[in-house]
Specification:
With 153 residues, the chain is α/β, with parallel strands linked by helices. The protein contains five helices and nine strands; from the N terminus they run βββααβαβαββββα.
Length: 153
């Protein structure tokens, strides 16, 4: 699990259009990397819409936003198109990147324990260093909190 001050683990994942996205390609820009449990669920939709609505503000601070879940590219494309999302959604179907970032964990809901993605966000600076790591975040208002931290970089 990466810690602030360490290099962000690199990866290559397909996006909603099945193009490959390599994290290290964004050196020279800040990256907001957020992991979310499932496409088109209430909290995940709210979070994706808030990040999308603020995308231009993030871009003004040389920042790109990448969302990752274990849903496939087709699900991501449907989710993006249904809600008019501007953020790039990446498919980690086998969960390897989720494991690298320590977001694939056992969760309990209604007394049932199962593995799943813990809603988490990482801020990576222009040199590829992890500046902030947040686990178990609340979707509502999260994008604005992250933008405030980006402004301080």
């Amino acid at each position: 699990m990466p810690h602030p001050g360490s290099h962000a683990p690199d990866f290559t994942l397909p996006d909603a259009d099945m193009g490959l996205v390599k994290l290290s390609r964004y050196k020279g820009k800040n990256v907001v990397l957020y992991f979310y449990p499932k496409d088109d669920t209430p909290g995940c939709t709210m979070e994706a819409i808030e990040f999308s609505d603020m995308e231009e503000e993030f871009a003004g601070y040389d920042t790109v936003i990448l969302g990752i879940s274990r849903d496939d590219c087709i699900s991501h494309a449907d989710f993006r198109d249904k809600h008019g999302l501007a953020v790039q959604l990446l498919a980690d179907v086998d969960g390897k990147v989720c494991e690298k970032y320590g977001v694939w964990r056992e969760k309990e809901k209604d007394g049932v324990r199962k593995m799943g993605i813990v809603r988490s966000t990482f801020i990576i600076d222009k040199q590829g260093m992890l500046r902030h790591a947040f686990y178990g975040v609340t979707a509502k208002g999260h994008a604005a909190e992250i933008l405030n931290l980006i402004k301080e970089l």
